[in-house]
Design a protein that fits this description.
heterodimer; A: alpha/beta; six-stranded mixed beta sheet; 45% helix; 17% strand; elongated; B: alpha/beta; two-stranded antiparallel sheet; 9 strands; 28% helix
Chain lengths: 195, 197
């Protein structure tokens, strides 16, 4: 009889203890929810075509340059530094730059390595979703060939569709041209680097 | 990194030639061009053309996209050939610019994938230019009348388990059964063709 009571008492204590633990854990989660880890690298964010368009529409810039590239694309890698250099030169004039990698999601390590080599310390993007849907969603005339660059003006209207590799000078002309239309054409030589 | 850079140099120049439009014929300017295959025999589009339809696709050895789909398109090409279609895989890349795309490596790839159809060298990138092909892999399907009825990607996902639309297979099925092709043009990323000149 005494042993049975002891067992019952032990069971009650264990149950109470379990209940307390569950209560505390639940409360802890409610007060401090676990951080949502959306990406392996928070500086490389996956976007579909609609999200990319929304990003562009949400920018307050005089010129928005969106470059689609991939680590496996030689011409993309060749022209990549031009974008970085021109961004440093013109960002204080109102230039925004979005890099969108068309690599596979499994290529994140290579993407990160390349971005690091290029000194990119701002958020860049990785294409999400199906190729056909993404490509058509970005631009109806884009075949999917890389590199490809879109340039928007201050009213978010597409100023240039450039489905080809660009030289530094060509890019500079495009950017200054769009900036000119926004009334700010002179690069600030005190800011950033020039080629 | 060195290896990475070497295979990255692959992808190439953008090419602005006009791509074949749906309904176009096999470009007559290149239909008789003889191309060296991995079996040592020369073959032309005219030779592999079939009265049931012909599948022409541009691919290569080095491109990550070509590699990602190679087992699928090799198997599909074998099956299409068995159904009586003409099938040919064309490597338009200049091996001087991308060593991995050499004929020797093409032979290894064809053997590894057990390709029963020709895998040939497009010397001078003549066919790629005539087709307006821009990248690898890129697929062109011609019907029994020799008209282009499908162009674009193989399917919609790198991961087989994630494929929702088998674009090329659906196009072939529709073509062979005389039905309209639901999606006759699709888009996909690929490695830009490394043109010979």
């Amino acid at each position: 009889m005494f042993m049975n009571l002891k067992k019952i008492f032990t069971l009650i204590l264990l149950s109470l203890g379990f209940a307390v633990v569950v209560f505390l854990v639940t409360r802890q989660e409610e007060e401090n929810p676990s951080p949502v880890v959306e990406e392996e690298n928070s500086d490389l964010q996956a976007v579909n075509a609609d999200q990319l368009k929304a990003l562009i529409q949400g920018l307050d810039s005089k010129v928005i340059v969106v470059n689609f590239w991939a680590t496996f694309c030689g011409p993309c890698r060749e022209e990549f530094p031009y974008f970085v250099s021109l961004y440093r030169e013109f960002k204080d004039q109102g230039m925004s730059l979005l890099f969108v990698s068309m690599d596979f999601d499994s290529d994140r390590p290579q993407i990160d390595e390349f971005l690091s080599e290029q000194g990119v310390n701002f958020v860049t993007y990785l294409r999400a979703g199906k190729d056909d849907e993404f490509i058509r969603g970005v631009h109806p005339e884009w075949s999917g060939v890389l590199p490809m660059t879109l340039v928007y003006d201050s009213s978010k209207q597409l100023a240039k569709f450039l489905p080809k590799a660009m030289t530094y000078e060509e890019l500079e002309d495009v950017i200054t041209g769009v900036l000119s239309s926004s009334g700010r054409s002179q690069p600030n030589k005190d800011q950033g680097e020039s080629k | 990194m060195k290896t990475l850079l070497s295979f990255l140099s692959c992808c190439v120049l953008s090419f602005s030639a006009q791509a074949l439009s749906l309904g176009a014929d096999v470009p007559s300017s290149v239909s008789a061009v003889e191309m060296m295959g991995t079996d040592g025999a020369k073959v032309s589009l005219a030779k592999i053309n079939s009265s049931k339809g012909t599948l022409v696709f541009f691919t290569c050895n080095h491109c990550p996209y070509s590699k990602a789909w190679e087992e699928r398109y090799a198997k599909f090409g074998n099956e299409a050939k068995a159904k009586g279609l003409g099938v040919i895989a064309i490597n338009p890349n200049n091996p001087a610019k991308q060593a991995e795309d050499s004929l020797e490596n093409m032979k290894k790839k064809a053997a590894r994938l057990k390709m029963s159809f020709p895998y040939v060298v497009d010397e001078g990138s003549k066919l790629a230019k005539a087709f307006g092909a821009e990248k690898t892999p890129e697929f062109f399907l011609f019907d029994a009348k020799g008209k282009l009825v499908y162009t674009g990607a193989f399917d919609d996902s790198k991961d087989v388990s994630d494929v929702e639309e088998a674009f090329l297979a659906s196009a072939v099925d529709a073509m062979l059964s005389g039905k309209p092709i639901a999606k006759a043009e699709t888009r996909a990323v690929g490695c830009g063709i490394k043109f010979w000149n």
